Amino acid sequence: MDKQLIPIPEVECLKYHGTPERPDIKIFVSHRVDFDSEIVSKPVYIPVRCGAAFSKNEYDTMLGDNTGDNISNLNGEYCELTAMYWAWKNIKADYYGLCHYRRYFCFGESQSEDIYGNVICDYISSDEKQRIAIENEEVIFQKIIGTDIILTTPTNVKNDPLHPKNLYEQYKNVRHLNVEDLETAVDVIREHAPEYYDDAKAFLSGCTFYSCNMFIMSRTYFFKYCEWLFPLLEKIRSRIKSSEYSREALRTIGHIAERMLGIFFIHELRVKKDLKYKVLQRAFFKNPQSLSFPTPWKENNCIPVVFASSDYFAPYLAVTLYSMLKNSDKSFFYDLFILSTDISAIMKTNLQKMLKDYPHARLRYIDMTPYVNNTKLVPNSHVSKETFYRLYVDEVFQHFDKIVYLDSDLIICADISKLYRAPLGG
Q1: Mean per-residue pLDDT for 379-400?
Q2: Cβ contact 44:218 at 8 Å
Q3: 397 with 306: CB under 8 angstroms?
Q4: What would you measure as the largest C-alpha separation in the chain, in angstroms?
Q5: For the chain, how big is the Rg over CA atoms in Å?
Q6: Which has more confidence, 286 or 56?
Q7: Any idea of the CA torsion for 291, 293, 299, 300, to the nearest 10 degrees?
Q8: Other C-beta atoms within 10 Å of 35: how many?
Q9: In 3-state terms, what secondary structure has residue 218?
């Protein structure tokens, strides 16, 4: 596998902290490099940017999967497994887990599920985190310590909308996947791990699916799984003709790995009668975007400027931004924020293009939905709901000493830094 060798960061969360009384548990949370998602701030969770080798965001402080021995450059095919590989090769722990920026294990009481086995949550808020106990470390430790393998509660694929009769047919029904690739995976298992071949056939002819590549394993089983899985995936990858695959189809290795997890599990269950395992429910967050409060840019010459806009009003905002940047002083750095709930990806792309000639500025978006979700805002023909967002500025920008808030329908004719630096009375 191709690898890039950048030193592993010397950070506390990656150090080994295990003792005989309290083992070291590290649950690696795969995050996207193109999405600012909320993190769960407990030592047991290690947020990792997957595909960090492709990240161009110099402001990211989250750990990336592109240090040490890694396959970060294969993230487009291996998905969250690049974080798993990175943990396997570089990090010491007693228990290793893998989950996603929007999918976590539920450590609390049993909850109702949808047909796919998800406990549906809204935002990664304090209330939702408490409901599924993902920050209750004592409960987490009680659930994990002493087990060999923990997986998510399995689903019966016969309940899928197309009602497949087994896992093989379920894979075949997925529009962007090719069942021949799954057959290739079975052939590779037969040739290179024959002791798992009967398990592969039994698993794929069954209906029980442990989805999403989520698990928690003791060190012994985690290393056994990785040492079995990754060489097989590399052989499978070498046989798949993916040159004309769509972007989603290129994720075939990640999809096959979901099935490989189940194959590995039922094999271990068969050969070790006293395997200590359990299943936990899986939480799915509909809105995993970051609720973190922005922090000031590290330089003293930073000018934070805040706007509020809807997607409809964004073209007018573009004029305001352009006039501000056109008159900006290049000796300052302009940290621009837009408060919004509905600005489209296309509009964000267009606004970002405006900054290409202004390297002394960056643009960030603050999703106001969690702030206003439970508040009744009453707009009218003259006052939009975005007008009310300024009332939340003190809360959103609580780490800032001062900001400039501007309406989004202005023509700015001078450098805004002069306004920011104006002395305030009181």
Answers
A1: 89
A2: no
A3: yes
A4: 78
A5: 25
A6: 286
A7: 160
A8: 12
A9: strand
